[in-house]
Amino acid sequence: MNPEPTPAGQPDVLVVGGGIGGLSTAYALSRQGLRVRVLEQAPEYGEVGAGLQIAPNCTRILAEYGLLDEATSLGVVPENMVMRDALDARELTRLDLRDLERRYGFPYMVIHRSDLHGIFLRACERAGVELLNNQVVVGYENVEGGARVLLQDGRTESAPLVVAADGLHSVARRALIGDEVVNSSYVAYRAAVPIEQVKDNGIAEDDVTVYVGPGCHFVQYALRGGEMFNQVAVFESPKALAGQEDWGTPDELDAAFEGTCDTVRKGIPLMWRDRWWRMFDREPVETWVHGRIALLGDAAHPPLQYMAQGAIMAIEDGWVLARHYARLAGAAPSLADPDWDGALAAYEAVRVEHCRRVQTTARAWGELWHLDGEARLRRNAIMRARDARDYSFTDWVYGPTALTPAEEPEMFTPIPLSSATVEQPVA
Ligand SMILES: Cc1cc2nc3c(=O)[nH]c(=O)nc-3n(C[C@H](O)[C@H](O)[C@H](O)COP(=O)(O)OP(=O)(O)OC[C@H]3O[C@@H](n4cnc5c(N)ncnc54)[C@H](O)[C@@H]3O)c2cc1C
């Protein structure tokens, strides 16, 4: 690397990537009085896509940041989360989200991802975070007293801490770990349309509904105070399984949902057809911190989306890092010399295991959703037998974000499919 120090002065923290993970972390650290600079490659800050579900383990943090009211005013707090079989539309299980809010103290809500991103962007601006664009980071290295990044235009930037929140295809991850993304062969189509367009489709406007089917699933919920309706269609691509380059195309979308129930089939023509999201994750890794370079968000732990926790984990990461910084700064003799090594070790000690659990559960959850044949019937029987007030499957993830490994709750005990009595298919 050819060191050419930036003329703008050195911040306390450099955050690479201005997605939800990068911005929320920048905000969390700036609340501690730190000078934070965000380096984003895109010419503008923004988010592509449609809705995001945010569970109480995230709304709890938004409340602490003073951002929850803004989020609820822009989003929707649904009444139920209902899971249905995508073939026969029968209800399998549900969460009463009002009851869930009473249990965890904070709402389960849905929001347009650009609205959540905008909330963090405005919070960063108010907090004085330096938000730079057109900053393509191509290299990282640890240096005396911190770390340095190399930009595509040859400049360098350095700080006592560099947080790499550069997403699924992270340059930092490639440099520090060198692993490959794992292709699930599943692809997501999204759409957010005016609610009028779907009123006659048999939708449940006040619920999050997830239709699970063989090799596919379909998610629906209202957005923006109920004015819009969000849909996500996910399926396993035969072309991906056959090793073809051109996979996940709209013809595959149509074929994947052909045998599904009315409401799902009516939703498919509304999906955006000019872009789709191939679904990758990575194997969990145990080391996210390399000297003063820390991976965060999807760069550290990209999940498959079946737990709807990817953005939430990124927000939790920043909250945990800032909390440990503050704890150690309070104990430090001088604020000018923060114990970053201590804060990073504490961050890694608790977040790696939590996110590993979410990543591996998301894979297992996806397999369960996409079952066919007798396994599907066994799954349905187990889900139907679940007591709607049984929170043993959510306590480990929707409760307060752990700051230490000792605070991390026990996981649930999976119910084996073999324990179910097979029901006769509905004619
Ligand atoms: C279909 C789908 C549905 C989802 N639903 C949910 C949900 O309901 N709930 C939930 O919590 N999560 C959900 N997620 C996951 C969530 O979107 C991601 O986990 C989250 O956005 C990751 O945020 P991030 O900031 O870590 O990464 P990103 O959003 O990928 O941001 C990375 C940023 O870094 C920038 N960048 C990249 N490389 C460089 C570079 N070299 N130099 C400078 N900048 C760079 C990028 O431009 C980008 O702005 C979903 C994902 C998908 C695909």
Automatic annotation (TrEMBL):
GO terms for molecular function: FAD binding; monooxygenase activity. This is FAD-dependent oxidoreductase. It comes from the Bacteria. Pfam families: FAD_binding_3. The lineage of its organism: Bacteria, Bacillati, Actinomycetota, Actinomycetes, Kitasatosporales. InterPro entries: FAD-bd, FAD-dep_Monooxygenase_BioMet, FAD/NAD-bd_sf. Its cofactor is FAD. It comes from Streptomyces antnestii. Keywords: FAD, Flavoprotein, Monooxygenase, Oxidoreductase.
